[in-house]
């Protein structure tokens, strides 16, 4: 059903029809399974069909791999990699084949990822209708208040405790909201992991245990995953200065990136080095190893190319390559470049070494399903997020931060003000709690620069509109602060900002 929605590009999915079709498909599968396991019915033809399904699946995977490789073979210069001509390097054929394999691995994990995500959404819907609040898909923001009195009382108690503790353990008391999230994420995922490990040792691999683990790890409305990613992000930025915690509690300044990250598929130092130094340092320009500028974002297939590039970046490989490149082509290499390169390598060694140790001392299957699959899921999620944040670039002024990053007003999933991405890039040192104030203070600059703003949406919704080329929906939610643009003019401007930018246009490359 999901594939039908993607390939037929249904404009607005009729959820009632979608649900009915899903039920019919599930009932059909149940009937077929029952028939296949029945001794009273001659189902030899069905069994022959079922034995052909893996072969058919391999054929589809093979054809898909060829298509992805063809997309990857399109000539795209990557100027941050130096070449003898000084024009930058393209990916070699071997490198493209490796990236194609990585891309296919990311695609193959999608059915499992969709199953876990759907279960997470259903869990949140149940909690929401029971009165626990927390928003729901379809327009209710995640900060919606609970209707149950005991839940409200519990939330107030948590707020009182974190407010009391903040002056004693935090450098900035405005970060008090972090405390319950960090405590929960330091306890809940490790507990789940130990439970899954003990069950595996006792009973071997169980699909049910694995499924429960991943759903509970993600949390309702994938809030635990989102909170972990956001706090690792915040920690990465804060640690470039003084850290979140102070005094004797400063030992916890890296607890998100060097402990919680392992349960959510993040490579340590990925945010502190790859994100802060490379992505923010280069600002999604052509010096950025995760840049989107060179792609034609108006084409859906461009994301397939980006997926492999981002996987290389988020694994840490192209981050190490980035600093290696700087060191080799600098007359006097900086000590900080060596330090950053080695820090990223330590993070890679820790994460992939941990996966290897689990494969060696527990089993390869356990390591795959509990460490590497979350890693692939995280790459899928974050590649979609970063692609969305930086899809729109002015081809005539590609360094304009007001356009090449987006801002979401009245966002449905605004966690720690992450929706104000322009402010985050322009002033990453400003505290996140002031993002809205900073936006309102500089609204004239947003208006003059015709900033890329959307309203009443969320990142993943924007991503699917971009991928499905739903330009009408993008235009409906696009905010024109001048009030002069018509719907068609908004569509035309959106498409213009999705065009690829050539290296020679940017000021960085000149």
Brief synopsis:
With 510 residues, this protein is mostly helical. It has helices spanning 2-8, 15-36, 44-72, 93-108, 110-129, 149-169, 178-203, 207-218, 223-238, 255-258, 270-282, 302-314, 317-328, 335-361, 364-389, 401-404, 421-426, 435-441, 443-448, 459-467, 471-477, 487-496, and strands at 407-409, 453-455. It has 22 helices and 2 strands.
Structure notes:
The protein has 510 residues and is mostly helical. The protein has helices at residues 2-8, 15-36, 44-72, 93-108, 110-129, 149-169, 178-203, 207-218, 223-238, 255-258, 270-282, 302-314, 317-328, 335-361, 364-389, 401-404, 421-426, 435-441, 443-448, 459-467, 471-477, 487-496; strands at residues 407-409, 453-455. Strands 1-2 form a two-stranded parallel ribbon. Helix 7 (178-203) runs antiparallel to helix 8, helix 7 packs across helix 9 (223-238) and helix 12 packs across helix 15 (364-389). The longest helix is centred in the N-terminal third of the chain and has 29 residues, at 44-72. It starts with a helix and ends in a 14-residue tail after the last helix. The relative contact order is 0.09.
């Amino acid at each position: 059903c999901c594939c039908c929605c993607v390939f037929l590009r249904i404009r607005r999915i009729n959820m009632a029809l979608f649900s009915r079709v899903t039920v019919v498909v599930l009932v059909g599968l149940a009937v077929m399974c029952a028939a296949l396991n029945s001794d009273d019915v001659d189902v030899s033809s069905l069994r022959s069909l079922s034995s052909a399904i893996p072969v058919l699946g391999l054929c589809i995977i093979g054809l898909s791999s060829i298509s992805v490789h063809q997309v990857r073979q399109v000539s795209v210069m990557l100027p941050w990699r130096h070449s003898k001509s000084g024009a930058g390097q393209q990916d070699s054929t071997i490198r493209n084949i490796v990236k194609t394999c990585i891309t296919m691995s990311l695609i193959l994990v999608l059915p499992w990822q969709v199953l876990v995500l759907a279960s997470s959404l259903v869990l949140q819907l149940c909690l929401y209708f029971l009165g626990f609040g927390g928003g729901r898909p379809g327009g209710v923001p995640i900060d919606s208040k609970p209707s149950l009195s005991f839940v409200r009382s519990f939330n107030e108690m948590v707020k009182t405790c974190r407010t009391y503790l903040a002056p004693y353990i935090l450098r900035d008391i405005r970060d008090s909201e972090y405390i319950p999230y960090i405590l929960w994420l330091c306890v809940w995922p490790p507990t789940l992991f130990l439970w899954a490990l003990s069950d595996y040792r006792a009973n071997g691999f169980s699909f049910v245990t694995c499924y429960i683990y991943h759903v509970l790890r993600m949390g309702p409305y994938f809030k635990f995953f989102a909170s972990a990613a956001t706090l690792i992000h915040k920690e990465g930025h804060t640690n470039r200065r003084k850290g979140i915690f102070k005094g004797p509690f400063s030992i916890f300044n890296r607890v998100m990136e060097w402990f919680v990250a392992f349960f959510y598929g993040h490579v340590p130092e990925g945010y502190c080095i790859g994100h802060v130094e490379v992505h923010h340092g280069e600002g999604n320009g052509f010096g950025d190893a995760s840049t989107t500028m060179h792609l034609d974002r108006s084409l859906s297939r461009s994301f397939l190319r980006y997926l492999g590039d981002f996987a290389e970046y988020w694994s840490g490989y192209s981050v190490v390559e980035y600093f290696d490149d700087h060191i080799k082509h600098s007359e006097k290499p900086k000590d900080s470049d060596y330090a950053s390169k080695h820090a990223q390598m330590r993070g890679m060694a820790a994460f992939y070494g941990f996966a290897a140790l689990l494969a060696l001392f527990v089993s390869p299957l356990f390591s795959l399903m509990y460490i590497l699959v979350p890693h692939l899921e995280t790459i899928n999620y974050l590649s979609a997020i970063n692609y969305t944040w930086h899809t729109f670039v002015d081809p005539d002024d590609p360094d304009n931060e007001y356009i090449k990053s987006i801002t979401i007003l009245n966002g449905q999933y605004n966690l720690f003000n992450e929706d104000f991405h322009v402010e985050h890039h322009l002033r990453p040192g400003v505290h996140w709690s002031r993002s809205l104030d900073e936006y309102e203070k500089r609204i004239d600059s947003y208006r003059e620069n015709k900033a890329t703003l959307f309203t009443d949406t969320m990142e993943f919704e924007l991503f699917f509109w971009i991928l499905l080329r739903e330009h009408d929906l993008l235009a409906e939610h696009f905010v024109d602060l001048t009030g002069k643009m018509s719907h068609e003019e908004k569509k035309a401007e959106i498409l213009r900002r999705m065009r690829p930018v050539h290296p020679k246009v940017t000021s960085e490359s000149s």
